[in-house]
Amino acid sequence: MLWLQKLLHPTVIVIRDGRATAARGRLPGAVLRDLELLCADFDIRRATIALDGRGRCHFSSTVPANAHQRIRNVLS
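Above: the chain's sequence. Below: its structure in C-alpha cell form.
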C-alpha cells in the first residue's frame, strides 16, 4: 500500500526498525531524528505517515492514537 501513498501524497515518511526516512518528499534531518525519538518512546517499529500538503497527516494503523498529536507537532 506504500506505492499508493506515494502516488497520492507529496510527502511520505516510512519508519522501519525505528528509523525514519522520507520515501517521498524532503524533510530536514532534525525532523526525522525527532520522529525516531518519538517512535522509540511509543515503541513504534514499523509505520507509514503521509502528509497531504494541506496540513493533514495520515497514519498507518501501527501508530497508536495517543501518538498522533505529538507526531503532528514534530511535523508542523
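The longest strand covers residues 11-16.
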